[in-house]
Structures are given as structure tokens and as C-alpha cells.
Amino acid sequence: MDKSRADKFREEREKLNDIVMKYAGINTKRFYNIDWQTYQDGALSTKTKEMLGLVASLVLRCDDCIMYHLVRCFEEGVADNELEEALTVGLVVGGSITIPHLRRAWRAWDEMKISGKPGKSGVHSHE
Fold first, then answer.
1. C-alpha distance from residue 126 to each of 8, 35, 95, 111, 116 (Å)
2. Which of 15, 38, 108, 120 is nearest to 66 (CA)?
3. What's the CATH code of the domain at 97?
4. Is pLDDT above 70 for 127?
5. Does residue 86 fall inside a structural domain?
6. Nearest to 69 by CA among 84, 85, 56, 81
7. Which of 21, 68, 78, 97 is the most buried (most CB within 10 A)?
8. Contact 50, 69 (CB under 8 A)
9. Is residue 125 predicted with pLDDT exceeding 60?
């Protein structure tokens, strides 16, 4: 059975993060830590923050970032209707140029729902 897009993304991201950390100085490590801390529960839940990250990623048209936050949204139990509203915000803010990214996001979401798993996430930073 072929690996899902989410699994392939996760594996590649893990490998690349390992390489980054091999060479990372204190400032890069601090940035990764700030990125991770930002998405922890606070006044806003992790789930809400991941949806915000997804919206920002869609507007910026960052495919890796979209996939990362989509996987995290799946892991955080985001419902289809919540995802639809979040992606619609991104579409309205980002405009029609985000539609190809929206299509790929829904394809990946559908695949995760069918397989029942998103792939495991590790270090938070998606940069």
C-alpha cells in the first residue's frame, strides 16, 4: 500500500529537521522552541491555534506549512465543518490564488479521514 501524502510529508520533514538541527545554532533552536511554545494551550486552545496557523499558511500559499497544520488539525480533532470555515477564511483573505492550495488541502484531509491517521508529528516548526 502506498504511503499517504501526510506520511510522506512527515517523513521528509523529520529528515530535514534532523539535518537542520545538526547544524543549528542557538538562535535557530530558540526559534524552533518559540514556534513550538506558541501552539501550546493558553487563552486559545492548541486546536484553535492550529486552525489559525492553517489559515495563515493558506494565505501565504506555503504548501509545506498547509500540510503541517492540516495534519495537526486532524490530530487535534478538528471537525469537517470547522475546517471548512477556517479554510473559507483563508480563501476570502487570500483570494482566488489560494484555490489550488485549497484543493490540495481537501485532498489531503480526505486521505487522512479515509486512512484514519494523519502521520505522526514531531518537532513543531514547519519552516
1. 14, 9, 23, 21, 22
2. 108
3. 1.20.1290.10
4. no
5. yes
6. 56
7. 68
8. yes
9. no
